[in-house]
Design a protein that fits this description.
The chain is of the alpha/beta class. The protein has two domains: 2-101 and 208-234, 3-Layer(aba) Sandwich (Rossmann fold), CATH 3.40.50.720; 103-203, Dihydrodipicolinate Reductase, domain 2 (2-Layer Sandwich), CATH 3.30.360.10. It has seven helices and eleven strands. The protein has helices at residues 10-21, 53-65, 81-91, 103-119, 143-155, 208-221, 230-234, and strands at 2-6, 25-30, 46-49, 70-72, 94-97, 126-133, 161-164, 172-179, 186-192, 197-203, 226-228. The strands form two sheets. The chain has a six-stranded parallel sheet with strand order 2-1-3-4-5-11, sandwiched between helices. Helix 1 (10-21) packs across helix 6 (208-221), helix 2 runs parallel beside helix 3 (81-91) and helix 4 (103-119) packs parallel to helix 5. The longest helix has 17 residues, at 103-119. It is elongated and about 60 Å long. The protein starts with a strand and ends with a helix.
C-alpha cells in the first residue's frame, strides 16, 4: 500500500516508521513547506492526515476531489462533518475519521459506554472525565474526551451536556482537562458515590498505539466507499 502523509510532525514520523515495518511505502509527504493542495500530485493509494484543525477540512476536500481515500486523525472539526459526509458520498470515495485511533482507547470507549448504561439505574454515582495531554495539545477538552462524553450522554439519561472544569447542575458531565509536559495522553472515567469510586483509566505509553490504529484504518479504507470510524475498523458493536 502506498501512503501519502499529510502532516509530518511527531505523529507523521511515527506512522512512517510503523508503516514501513508493516511493508507499506510512504510515497508522498506533505507539510507546511510542501502543502497538500489540488496542484500537488501523488500516486498514493490512501492519505493519512494529522495536521491542524484549521487545515483539515481543506485537506479532506482535496482528497475528495482527487478520489483519494483519507484517514483523518486531526480533531476539532466535527462541525463540518455533515457537509464533508455529503461530499464523500457524492464522490463515492472514503473517509475514516476518529478522535483517537488507538485500539486500546476504542476498547476503553466501549467500556465507558457500558459503564454509563449500567449506572443509569444507580443515580448515587456521579460520572466525570479527566484527561491529561502534553502542552502542545491544541484542543481542550481533547477530541477523545468529547467522544467519551458523547458516549456517556447517549447511554446515561441523567446527563444532557458536558462542562469543562466545573459543573453548575447535575445534568452536566464534568470534564477536567489538564496539560502537562511529555504526556502522550491519559483519560480516566470516575463514577463516585459517598461510599466508593469506580475508575476506568487508559494511559498511553507512547504514540505507537495511535499511529498503528491509523495504519489499520488506512488498510481498511482501501476499496471502501463512505464515512467510517474506528468502530467500523475494529468491528466494535
Amino acid at each position: 500500500m502506498k501512503i501519502a502523509l499529510v502532516g509530518y510532525g511527531k505523529m507523521g514520523k511515527t506512522i512512517e516508521r510503523l508503516a514501513k515495518e508493516r511493508g507499506h511505502e510512504i510515497c508522498s509527504i506533505f507539510n507546511t513547506a510542501s502543502p497538500y493542495t489540488l496542484a500537488t500530485q501523488t500516486n498514493a493509494d490512501v492519505a493519512i492526515e494529522f495536521t491542524r484543525p484549521e487545515l483539515v477540512v481543506g485537506h479532506i476536500e482535496t482528497a475528495i476531489q482527487q478520489h483519494l481515500p483519507i484517514v483523518v486523525g486531526t480533531t476539532a472539526w466535527s462541525a463540518h462533518l455533515p457537509q464533508i459526509t455529503q461530499q464523500i458520498e457524492a464522490a463515492n470515495t472514503c473517509l475514516v475519521h476518529a478522535s483517537n485511533f488507538s485500539i486500546g482507547v476504542n476498547i476503553f470507549q466501549q467500556l465507558t459506554e457500558n459503564l454509563a448504561q449500567m449506572l443509569a439505574a444507580y443515580p448515587q454515582y456521579a460520572l466525570s472525565i479527566e484527561e491529561i495531554h502534553h502542552l502542545q495539545k491544541l484542543d481542550s477538552p481533547s477530541g477523545t474526551a468529547l467522544t467519551l462524553a458523547a458516549g456517556i450522554i447517549e447511554k446515561h439519561p441523567a446527563y444532557k451536556t458536558w462542562s469543562l472544569n466545573a459543573v453548575t447542575d447535575n445534568n452536566e458531565l464534568l470534564i477536567e482537562a489538564k496539560r502537562l509536559p511529555d504526556v502522550p495522553g491519559t483519560h480516566e472515567i470516575r463514577a463516585t458515590s459517598t461510599i466508593d469510586t469506580i475508575t476506568l483509566r487508559h494511559e498511553a505509553h507512547n504514540r505507537d498505539g495511535f499511529a498503528l490504529g491509523a495504519i489499520l484504518a488506512a488498510e481498511f479504507a482501501l476499496g471502501k466507499q463512505g464515512v467510517f470510524t474506528m468502530k467500523d475498523v475494529l468491528q466494535i458493536i
